[in-house]
UniProtKB/TrEMBL annotation:
Name of the featured protein: NAD-dependent epimerase/dehydratase domain-containing protein
PANTHER family: NAD DEPENDENT EPIMERASE/DEHYDRATASE (PTHR10366), VPS9 DOMAIN-CONTAINING PROTEIN (PTHR10366:SF812)
Positions of the NAD-dependent epimerase/dehydratase domain: 6-218
Source organism of the structure: Hypocrea atroviridis (strain ATCC 20476 / IMI 206040) (Trichoderma atroviride)
Family: Belongs to the NAD(P)-dependent epimerase/dehydratase family. Dihydroflavonol-4-reductase subfamily.
Keyword Oxidoreductase appears in the UniProt entry: yes
SUPFAM superfamilies associated with the record: NAD(P)-binding Rossmann-fold domains
Residues annotated as transmembrane: none
Length: 330
């Protein structure tokens, strides 16, 4: 169905800016939730030929219960991408748990009040589908749609550094996903609701304009290449463009309500990553030399069946990522 109005939270972010392009390409209109008018204008500047099909709603605090009041009028499809980042914030509840829970419930409650809503997609993460700290078990296999609950302790002591930040992030995602499940079971909405669980997303960015703006998984990938230490996470990655394509396909796909859609790219390893970059870009003087080891995997059978995405070869993703960073470093 073309020319539907699609509402996107986190629209000015890494995934959101790609998704806007795919939604526009599919013939729909976009209403972007942004924190300021400046961010809204920046989105329009990315798509000048389609700026008349982009509008925005300023939502300063997306975790408030009334955050989306009136913002969903006339909307048919909702993509909720806004959420905490691993490297943003330090307080477990305020920076990770509350945004995940309150942001999700706020968009769902607002959608329930609008008769035009047909489908809501909540974008979570692969870490909400596994026990806390399972990411350190490098051969762990993730399955979706098992209805399994993973216990968390909001009072636990978290380690310092990146590992502690990641555990806080995962805790927020687990709690947020359970709140989403509970809401569906209790409210039984008339529209379809589903969740999307990407693995670590990397590739070319539409929002990075300088080397100093490198962030997220792209930062991790680039810094790892320059390190002679071990990798900080398992290699389970997916191309940003594939994530965006998969999300856009949800609009027309027949996905049963409550479905969890896991998303990850072709199986690859850190050693393959290092070897490919070294052979393709010898001038980078890559120090990273990991040993071959098992990597984490995720069953995406349901996603392949329902969305039919043609996944980008990992070498193509790496090439697009590395060449953007080289260009921005000049």
């Amino acid at each position: 169905m073309s020319d539907s109005l699609v509402f996107i939270t986190g629209a000015s972010g890494y995934i959101g800016t790609h998704l806007i392009g795919d939604v526009l390409k599919a013939g729909h209109r976009v209403r972007a939730a942004v924190r300021s008018e400046e961010k809204g204008q920046a989105i329009k500047d990315l798509y000048p030929s389609s700026s008349d099909r982009i509008e925005f709603a300023v939502v300063p605090d997306m975790s408030q219960a009334s955050a989306y009041q009136n913002a969903l009028k006339g909307v048919s499809y909702v993509f909720h991408l806004a959420g905490a980042m691993v490297d943003k914030g330090a307080d477990l509840e305020n920076d990770f748990v509350n945004p995940a829970v309150n942001g999700t419930l706020s968009i769902l409650e607002s959608a329930k009040k609008e008769a035009s809503i047909q489908k809501v997609a909540i974008v979570s993460s692969f870490v909400s589908l596994m026990p806390l700290d399972a990411v350190m078990q490098k051969s762990f296999h993730i399955k979706a749609n098992t209805n399994e609950s993973f216990p968390v302790d909001l009072k636990m002591d978290f380690p310092e550094g990146l590992s502690g930040q990641f555990l806080k992030y995962q805790t927020g995602k687990i709690v947020g996903h359970q709140a989403y499940r509970d809401w569906i079971n209790k409210q039984k909405p008339s529209f379809k609701v589903l969740s999307v669980h990407p693995s670590q997303v990397f590739g070319p960015s539409l929002v990075q304009n300088s080397a100093s703006e490198l962030s997220g998984v792209n930062f991790l990938m680039w810094m790892t290449l320059q390190s002679d230490g071990p990798p900080m996470t398992p290699y389970m990655m997916v191309d940003i463009r594939d994530v965006s394509h998969a999300l856009a396909r949800i609009i027309d796909a027949d996905v049963p309500s409550g479905t969890e859609l896991p998303i990850t790219g072709p199986l690859y390893t850190w050693k393959q990553f290092a070897n490919f970059v070294k052979s393709s870009y010898p001038a980078l003087d890559v120090k990273f030399a990991p040993q071959e080891e098992p990597t984490m995997t995720m069953d995406i059978t349901v996603t392949d069946k329902l969305l039919g995405v043609k996944w980008t070869p990992m070498e193509d993703t790496i090439r697009a990522f590395v060449e953007q960073q080289i260009a921005l470093s000049k």
